[in-house]
Amino acid sequence: MVDEIKDGWTDSIYQGDAVKILDELPNNSIDLVVTSPPYNVGVDYGEYDDDISKRKYKILIKDIFVQLNRKVKNDGRVCVNVGLKNDNGIVDIPSIIKEKADIFDWDLRFEIIWNKGNSESSTAWGSWRSPSSPRPIFNHEYILVFDVGNEKKESEKTLEKEEFMEYVKSVWNITPETSSEHPAPFPKEIPRRLIKLNSYKGDVVLDPFIGSGTTAVVAEKLDRDWIGIELNKEYIHSSYERIEYETNKIFDGRSVFDY
């Protein structure tokens, strides 16, 4: 797999631990990272324990960022979508992300609030109708966009005025998606905005937690190369099927077992 990656074999999903696979990617090879890592809120991902200790979660994020700091170009960016966690008090996952990014002197370019509307997918009422111990239902998440290095991207106008003005707002009103294939699907509008706002055609987009393949689908439609990483083999198979169906890209029978 190492030789295949070094030969520029993008448009593939690699099965395994994200930290180990990232270590095999060439340095300074990624233009943009768009991902939604596990929130550590107990979601059943099959292969991954999404309810580890806060200390272990911090180690996981740091280990991922160590690799991304080497793999992302000096004018590249890292976009991370995370939410909050209710665990006998609010666990501020976005602050953990920012804390670990600060280790590598990444500059926070955007902090976007993803307003999910009246979604009640997360129930945390606490005491019912009583001030004794109410708990909030989170109908928002965060999208953090970091500059990895200190080089500036080339200036080329690629967005329409209206979409640019919409994308640079600090609140994005986007309805969540649901899927029987994956417990936490990524709405396509989020990677679409992030990819268009932070990259050019032909750039390489990486999602180290690609899940149901949404980032790959959007990147393919926007004429970007892409790389995905995923632990769960079933998600990889369904992602390839989805990418073929939605983009008409043929993978010639490629499967997770090739890796």
List the main descriptive attributes of the protein structure presented here.
259 residues, two-stranded antiparallel sheet, globular, alpha/beta, Rossmann fold
CATH level 3 topology = Rossmann fold
Compute the separation of the termini in Å: 6 Å
**Biggest sheet overview:** 8 strands, mixed
Radius of gyration: 18 Å
Strand content: 15-25%
What's the CATH class label? Alpha Beta
Name given to the CATH homologous superfamily? Vaccinia Virus protein VP39
Strand line-up of the largest beta sheet: 1-10-9-2-3-7-6-8
Listing every helix as H and every strand as E from the N terminus to the C terminus, the arrangement reads HEHEHEEEHEEHEHEHEH
CATH architecture: 3-Layer(aba) Sandwich
What's the domain count?
1
Q: How many runs of DSSP E, i.e. beta strands?
A: 10
Poorly predicted ranges? 41-48, 255-259
Tally of contiguous helical segments: 8
Mean pLDDT: 85
Can you describe this structure?
- The longest helix has 18 residues, at 54-71.
- This protein is α/β, with parallel strands linked by helices and 259 residues long.
- The protein has an eight-stranded mixed beta sheet with strand order 1-10-9-2-3-7-6-8, with helices on both faces. The chain has a two-stranded antiparallel ribbon with strand order 4-5.
- The protein has one domain: 3-Layer(aba) Sandwich (Rossmann fold), CATH 3.40.50.
- α2 packs parallel to α3, α3 (54-71) packs across α4 (93-103) and α7 (214-221) runs parallel beside α8 (233-247).
- The protein has helices spanning 2-6, 18-24, 54-71, 93-103, 161-167, 189-198, 214-221, 233-247; strands spanning 12-15, 30-35, 72-82, 85-86, 90-91, 107-115, 140-147, 171-173, 204-207, 225-230.
